[in-house]
Design goal:
InterPro entries: Isochorismatase-like_dom, Isochorismatase-like_sf, Isochorismatase_domain. This is Isochorismatase hydrolase. Keywords: Hydrolase. The protein is α/β, with parallel strands linked by helices and 177 residues long. It has a single domain, classed as Isochorismatase-like (Rossmann fold), CATH 3.40.50. It has a six-stranded parallel β-sheet, with helices on both faces. The longest helix has 17 residues. It is globular. The protein starts with 8 loop residues before the first strand and ends with a helix. The model has no long low-confidence stretch (mean pLDDT 96).
């Protein structure tokens, strides 16, 4: 199957933190699209994992993103996969949908770690952020070169639905409008 399998999906929300986000280029768009996916995941029973990098320095996850809807993992490593026990929460056969900041640091290193651990990874382009656009674009190209699929938030919504007959179809349409 080339589309994202909702039965095997996990949404990974990386480091949308309060002291970092004001510096992120077009950060409001990334947060809005991440929230859309968090809400969609809840509608279709897809688990979420949130990470926070050095929360003492970068603050908690921004209040626009409902951390309580998933598992929160605190980390010091840029690559969350290096944190003890992290991969235990990421199914070996999972379709890992990734959103977060910064694209070229924690997101990229975590994605490369997931790929090295043989996970199937989908990077949500419109729910990623970096301070500089060129860092984001370079990271996206690098992650794709190593095997990550590049998608948009709307692509994820419809792949999770699979059909217009899905019982949450109307709710999902309201999220993408």
């Amino acid at each position: 199957m080339l589309t994202i399998d909702p039965k095997r999906s996990l949404l990974l929300v990386i480091d949308f933190q309060s002291r970092l986000m004001p510096a992120i280029h077009d950060g409001e768009t990334a947060v809005r699209n991440a929230r859309r996916l968090i809400e969609m995941a809840e509608l279709v029973d897809i688990p979420c994992i949130f990470t926070e990098q050095n929360a003492k320095g970068l603050g908690p996850t921004v209040t626009d993103l409902p951390v309580e809807k998933g598992r929160l993992i605190h980390k010091q490593f840029f690559d969350a996969c290096r944190e003890s026990g992290f991969l235990d929460h990421v199914p070996a056969d999972g379709h890992i949908v990734v959103v977060g900041c910064e694209s070229h640091v924690c997101v990229q290193q975590t994605v490369l770690g997931l790929l090295a651990a043989s996970r199937k990874v989908y990077i949500v382009r419109d729910a990623l952020g970096s301070r500089r656009p060129e860092d984001k674009e370079t990271a996206i190209r690098r992650m794709e070169r190593h095997g990550a699929e590049i998608v948009t938030s709307e692509m994820v919504v419809f792949e999770w639905l699979q059909t217009a007959e899905h019982p949450r179809f109307r709710d999902a349409i309201a999220l993408v409008k």
